[in-house]
């Protein structure tokens, strides 16, 4: 049935029914959820971390390769990743959904099911939302989390000269997945599946974010625009420089097979939602021992304000100007 | 200059500059704002109220009568109204903006200026946001506020038989304004100005919301879908009925001149963002003495579950089925 035929309130009732299928976690934070003017939530900490991000048709995905369940997962996961990038714990999410009138109700429910999977895995409550018609699909999601204290957060401005630079997981797969879905990259079937999964189902590194803070790391962010662009944000806000080695970049195996193109995707592709952070060697080693994903040291923070050097395996600098994903 | 020519980061820098022009209030809640993965905020209370709402081109406004400053004001104000409708105090907002590439940078700044006016008047911090291109303009805004304690909130489910029903301010002007702007209602010039202002610049009743809670009122919401539809939400969630008198409805003078059409706008028009609440006569009288806007008793809560009767001045029932604003 189309959303237009179902009507707004009937559609909202079906969404609420999906949300109510998910059992609340141990921390019974939700005093009053969907159905009132605003959600009412009890928090543990007075220090909140809050972020919002959106996925818009024809900007972040094409209808030709849209997977509604995946869209729901990703819409929440990219916000959870921002909370992880602050070293925070997510508490609740608000979802503002815009859909064309001819959208199938079942597709909207698929979107919510995907989102609820990401919510359940991360202990996040879908506390409220809004639905409007629009000419294209857009999912605007806000996540509110918390950190235990003022100083217990990862900021972009805290990189210090001499810090090592490290990254979680493998890079380049999400951008490879987008290109595979859009038909501009032809990978072997097994790689294509891995790449498309990396594009649609990013894994927010919430546990690692907390491990970083626990071990005294104070500078971090997530890789959403691409490694080079995001490291640039850290350098700009920390008034520092960096030197990273191309040979150390943990290129995802499914794009590493592409050679230099794979390295380029890892450096500038974006949407990997891994954590990029800086800190002392000993702290990073402790993090690596605790984290359940690879932690790779890729370079170090230098004095040169804003200057980023990427050194190739031949010792020469690789030009990286204009790297990263721009929304315009 | 068009947004496409300015580029994403330059546009964000200009938006940040606008936001930084506004001095923070006494409560220095913002630890770290725009520029990091998430905003970091310190709150007073552990009980949060959180809401999200959007304004989308061709659904909530037409480009033909778009006023960017007003759009910014309204995008925030409608969310502030939801916080008011919980009896809460707004703390901070996150703004997810979607704009076509050919949008003028100056128009985006106008939008933010309008939003910042509403933020300043209500003591709300614009703590973060996101910007994306899209084929149509959409402003998705989230506001997080707080209430002092669990029971100190207005809920839709708390109406009790015998409660009187009251509403703040005057109704029908916002819907009259929309019709005037769209050209389907021709009002005298002086009325047209008042109506258009009511449509674009709703005044969130934050102070009244707090006065309600302070005086023991426990049931309230804001009038966004229209008086009949919204009272219907209260009745459904409170499993109660209501009987209201048409002659008591505080129809806005600029639509009251239209006779029955004015009453209809007040009953079903929506977007007035006044507060609708129920409580004991003595509590309402105390509220009326403290509030800086008119408080009008329009009827009472009855036993009949979900049943709403609107009694005309001739004593006969006025049919009100299918009243209110639907988004589909």
From TrEMBL, chains A, B:
Family to which the UniProt record says this protein belongs: Belongs to the thiamine-monophosphate kinase family.
Residues covered by the PurM-like N-terminal domain: 35-147
Catalytic activity reported: thiamine phosphate + ATP = thiamine diphosphate + ADP
Pathway assigned in UniProt: Cofactor biosynthesis; thiamine diphosphate biosynthesis; thiamine diphosphate from thiamine phosphate: step 1/1
This protein's UniProt keywords: ATP-binding, Kinase, Magnesium, Metal-binding, Nucleotide-binding, Thiamine biosynthesis, Transferase
Sections of the chain in a coiled coil: none
Binding site for Mg(2+) 5: 225
Miscellaneous field: Reaction mechanism of ThiL seems to utilize a direct, inline transfer of the gamma-phosphate of ATP to TMP rather than a phosphorylated enzyme intermediate.
Residue intervals of the PurM-like C-terminal domain: 160-305
Annotated binding of Mg(2+) 1, by residue: 52-53, 130
EC supergroup of this enzyme: transferase
Residues involved in substrate binding: 60, 271, 325
Record organism: Dehalogenimonas formicexedens
The protein's name in its UniProt record: Thiamine-monophosphate kinase
């Amino acid at each position: 049935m189309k959303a237009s035929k179902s009507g707004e309130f009937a559609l909202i009732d079906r969404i609420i029914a999906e949300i109510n299928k998910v059992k609340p976690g141990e921390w019974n934070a939700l005093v009053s959820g969907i159905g009132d003017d605003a959600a009412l939530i009890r928090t543990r900490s007075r220090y909140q971390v809050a972020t919002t991000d959106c996925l818009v048709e024809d900007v972040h995905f094409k209808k030709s390769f849209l997977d509604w369940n995946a869209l729901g997962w990703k819409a929440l996961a990219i916000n959870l990743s921002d909370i992880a990038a602050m070293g925070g714990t997510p508490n609740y999410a608000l979802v503002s959904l815009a859909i064309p009138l001819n959208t199938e109700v079942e597709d909207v429910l698929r979107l919510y099911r995907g989102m609820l999977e990401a919510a359940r895995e991360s202990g996040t409550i879908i506390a409220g939302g809004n639905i409007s018609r629009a000419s294209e699909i857009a999912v605007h999601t806000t996540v509110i989390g918390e950190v235990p204290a003022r100083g217990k957060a990862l900021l972009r401005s805290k990189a210090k000269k001499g810090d090592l630079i490290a990254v979680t997981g493998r890079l380049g797969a999400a951008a490879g997945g987008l290109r595979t879905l859009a038909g501009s990259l032809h990978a072997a079937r097994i790689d294509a599946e891995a790449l498309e999964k990396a594009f649609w189902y990013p894994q927010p590194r919430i546990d690692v974010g907390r491990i970083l803070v626990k071990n005294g790391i104070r500078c971090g962010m997530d890789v959403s625009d691409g490694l080079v662009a995001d490291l640039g944000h850290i350098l700009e806000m920390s008034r520092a420089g960096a030197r990273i080695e191309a040979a150390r970049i943990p290129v995802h195996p499914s794009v590493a097979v592409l050679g230099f193109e794979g390295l380029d995707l890892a450096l500038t592709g974006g949407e990997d939602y891994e954590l990029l952070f800086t800190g002392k060697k000993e702290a990073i080693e402790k993090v690596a021992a605790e984290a359940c994903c690879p932690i790779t040291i890729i370079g170090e923070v230098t004095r040169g304000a804003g200057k980023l050097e990427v050194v190739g395996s031949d010792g020469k600098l690789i030009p990286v100007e204009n790297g990263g994903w721009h929304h315009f």
